[in-house]
């Protein structure tokens, strides 16, 4: 479904599960189509001011190749990241170190469409891929709104999360 702002309300593609057959590689995959060129979306993925509108506030380091960076999410939780792949403006991959969770890897792929860009998040090595799929679903909605020039309020981030998680768990 397309909103008035030109972004899809629901992911173009979504899956959770265990595609490799081993528990260690449980994966969440969520995509959204955005009416913007890849360079605009890339900027939103790596620019600290942009990250703060859809994922978390950069509180340490710089989101780029180098020693790593940290993000502060809601409720004061911090995650640490190191860039593993930097292919501007098509592919970004990071380590994902979140408190009380095993280290995982998240990748962002940008695919040019006839009108806009498909943004796909693939998050691997998860204990609870349905939970992450629901979270990435919401984060991609916030990313699309930011790229459209209309940041969404953080106090509404968790609205509908439980329903999304249940829907993703049903597909696992």
From TrEMBL:
It comes from the Bacteria. SUPFAM superfamilies: Bet v1-like. Gene3D superfamilies: 3.30.530.20. It holds the Pfam family AHSA1. Residues 1-10 have a biased composition (Polar residues). Residues 1-24 are annotated as: Disordered. InterPro entries: ASHA1/2-like_C, START-like_dom_sf. Belongs to the AHA1 family. This is Uncharacterized protein YndB with AHSA1/START domain. It comes from Nocardioides aurantiacus. The lineage of its organism: Bacteria, Bacillati, Actinomycetota, Actinomycetes, Propionibacteriales.
């Amino acid at each position: 479904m397309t909103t008035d702002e030109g972004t899809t309300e629901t992911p173009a593609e979504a899956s959770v599960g265990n595609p490799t057959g081993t528990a260690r590689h449980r994966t969440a995959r969520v995509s959204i189509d955005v009416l913007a060129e890849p360079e605009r979306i890339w900027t939103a993925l790596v620019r600290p001011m942009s990250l703060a509108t859809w994922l978390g506030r950069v509180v340490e380091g710089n989101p780029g190749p180098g020693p790593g960076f940290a993000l502060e999410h809601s409720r004061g939780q911090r995650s640490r990241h190191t860039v593993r792949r930097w292919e501007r403006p098509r592919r970004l991959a990071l380590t994902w170190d979140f408190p009380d969770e095993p280290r995982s890897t998240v990748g962002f792929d940008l695919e040019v469409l006839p009108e806009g860009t498909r943004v796909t998040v693939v998050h691997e090595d998860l204990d609870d891929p349905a939970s992450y799929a629901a979270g990435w679903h919401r984060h991609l909605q916030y990313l699309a709104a930011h790229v459209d020039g209309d940041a969404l309020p953080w106090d509404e981030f968790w609205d509908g999360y439980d329903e999304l998680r249940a829907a993703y768990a049903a597909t696992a």
